[in-house]
Write a structure and sequence with these properties.
mainly alpha, single chain, 81 residues
Length: 81
């Protein structure tokens, strides 16, 4: 068998470096209560709850942005957004 086609030996550091970075993982950001746990040990229920919480926060922010845009619209100015 060709030497190049063999899989590399498994190394824990490779595994950790292949994980999404904590800061950029939106789902992990949403699970702020679970920050002491790495994201790959979350149960399915915890993931679902985090997604719901994240969606709620996103909708809240979108609503606030719409209000801000409305204020600019009423003032007759062009919105900066």
């Amino acid at each position: 068998m060709d030497e190049k086609k063999l899989p590399k030996p498994f190394s824990p550091t490779d595994f950790v470096s292949s994980l999404p970075t904590m800061r950029n993982d939106r789902l992990f950001m949403a699970t702020s209560r679970l920050r002491n746990e790495p994201p790959y040990v979350l149960t399915l229920k915890q993931v679902r709850d985090a997604r719901k919480r994240f969606d709620r926060l996103r909708k809240k922010k979108a609503k606030k942005m719409d209000e801000i845009k409305g204020i600019y619209f009423q003032a007759g100015e062009s919105s900066p957004f």
